[in-house]
Structure formats: C-alpha cells, structure tokens
Amino acid sequence: MGISGDTPSTIATTTSPFVPTSSIPEEPTALPSVTPLPTIQPSPTPAVVIIPATVGPTGYEQRWRSQQQQRMVFTPPQLYEARTQAMLLWFDPATNQVVEIGTLQGVFPAQAQFTFLPTQAPALEVPYRINGDFGLTSISDALQERMHAAGYAQSVEAFIVLSDTIVPKQ
Fold it and tell me: N or C: which end of the chain has fewer CB atoms below 10 A?
C-alpha cells in the first residue's frame, strides 16, 4: 500500500471519552452568607406650605423702613441746605431699587436721619409731593406709575445721601 497508489489508504481513528482535568465535588460548596440589610422606616416629612408674598402699601412701608438703620426722627422737621446739586432718591419697595427723582439745590426739609443699609451711607429722609416740590414738577410718567403701584398717590418719602455740601440750615 502506498500513498500514491490506486488503493485507498485507511487511517485508523480511535475515540476516547472526555476526561476533565479537575474533579467536580460531589456536594456543592456553601455560598457566602448574606446579611440582610436593616429595614429603614421612613420618617414623617413635614408638609411644605408655600404662601405667596402679597405686599400692599403697609408691606411696602415696612420694606422701606427695613432699609434704614439708626433712624432718628426730627420733631419738628429740620431744614437743611444743599449747597451744590444733590440727587433726590426714592427707594422703590416693589422692586428694591433706588431711583433718582431728580436733583435739588437749596433749602429743603428733612424729617429723619438714618443710615441707608445697602450702601451704609448716612442719609436724610425728605418728604416729596409727587410733581410738586423742589422744582421737580414733571417727573416721568413711568416713575409716577411706579410710585402709584407701590401705593403712593400724593407723596413719597424720598432721601438724600449726606455729603459735606449738605448742611443744617442756620
């Protein structure tokens, strides 16, 4: 029998059963023990109540006063003189903004002195009749609307930041 002959060659094959290389234990091994987690009881959560802020004229007055520290009321009001132009300001309690009404120069009444908290500046509270005092008789319609929206129809408590050019009237 040859490899290149006319007769087919036969190759003997043998089969053997699969034998694993490691042995399988007869009894399963125990799994690691699992400790159960403690049961957590939810604590009662307090109810959240949201109350919308509704601020009327009384609230606006309180907001304005909350911007003042060491307020000293003058009884009766005192006269001061602005020797140069000074800005007459108004605190809009609806928006927490300081708005310039205009400038004034000369003698004006002050009804209180205080420290304006946002700037820590000493200031004088000045009564201002809307469109009627200090030659400021044509303030903008938008500013008038803001004053009215904050509950001020006839007058507002304006203020002037003190400087060395604002002095008590002698």
Answer: C
Residues in CB range of 27: below 8 A, 6 or more apart: none
Q: Which two tokens stand for residue 69?
A: 């520290």
Separation between Cα atoms, residue 48 and residue 102, nearest integer Å: 45
| Burial environment of residue 88 by CB neighbours within 10 A (0 to 12, 13 to 18, 19 or more) | buried
**Exposed/middle/buried for 122, CB within 10 Å: 0-12, 13-18, 19+?**
middle
> Could you give the CA distance from residue 127 to residue 94 in angstroms, rounded to a whole number?
19
**pLDDT on residue 57:** 46
Q: Are strands 121-129 and 155-161 parallel, antiparallel or unpaired?
A: antiparallel
What burial class does residue 95 get, using C-beta atoms within 10 Å of its C-beta: 0-12 exposed, 13-18 middle, 19+ buried? Answer: exposed
The pLDDT of residue 15 is above 60: no
The per-residue b/e assignment along 65-78, b for 16 or more CB within 10 angstroms, e otherwise, is eebbeeeeeeeeee
Give the Å distances, CA to CA, from 105 to 13, 46, 153, 168: 122, 58, 25, 13
Regarding pTM above 0.90, the answer is: no
